[in-house]
Amino acid sequence: MSKTKVLVVEDYLPLVETLEYQLKRAGYEVYRAGDGREALKQAKLILPDLIILDVDLPVLSGVEVCKQLRANPATRDTLIMMLSALGEESDQVVGFAMGADDYIVKPVESYKVLLQKVKALLRRREPAVDDNDSVSHFGVTVDRRRFVVTIAEEPLKLTKSEFRLLETLIRQPGRAFDRNELVEAALGEDTLVLERTIDVHIRALRKKMGDAADLIETVRGVGYRFREPE
Question: What CATH code would you report for 5-123?
């Protein structure tokens, strides 16, 4: 059985070497790229299962690399974990909006935690099996088998995290989910995130939903719900 391939895109050599050591020790096959252009070349060549992608890169920024990876059919579904010294929520919003699946803030304080996040991301590569492949409310349709969301029959381009988040909410309209429940249901129960990470995902999802954004309602002091049909 082939090993899971991880591409580390980082220009700070000591961090690259530490990440490579930790990932290889955990059983992953590790590749390196030191700038944005090389990252795109490597990603197309080796088709990694996961890319750990620094934001601040030479030649092309990590955000631009993420954008181009998502635009290429060959790498569109590759898992991407953004890595940055920038801890502001706005930076996370940009990363998630470009299609990142997770976000790590440097310096990495615990490689054990990072490896848990890597494992959690890889664990949710395949959609879970469900007897009901699609569900629709208020013109919004989520089709799990085809991994497609449409609003008024127009397709919506979502990241995996956004897709699972919307699916979780729409399958039980009217039910208020707290943030921990949404992290477990949409991001994976082993995911370790900042307290407000789910809010970043919701904000990005609402923006993509346009006029249908208000179907995702904020429940003060609790979390979020999908509007209940009358």
Answer: 3.40.50.2300
The number of C-alpha atoms within 13 Å of 46 and in the hemisphere containing its C-beta is 22
Task: Please state the pTM of the whole predicted model.
Answer: 0.59
| Angstrom distance (rounded) from CA 161 to CA 202 | 10
pLDDT < 70 positions in the chain: 1-2, 86-93, 95, 124-132, 185-195
Q: Which part of the chain is CATH 1.10.10.10?
A: 134-226
Does the domain made of 134-226 have the CATH classification 1.10.10.10?
A: yes
Q: Give the residue range(s) of CATH 3.40.50.2300 domains in the chain.
A: 5-123
Q: Which long-range contacts link 185-192 to residues 24+ away (Cβ below 8 Å)?
A: 186/161, 187/120, 187/124, 187/161, 188/120, 188/121, 188/123, 188/124, 189/120, 190/116, 190/119, 190/120, 190/123, 191/102, 191/117, 191/120, 191/121, 192/113, 192/116, 192/117, 192/120
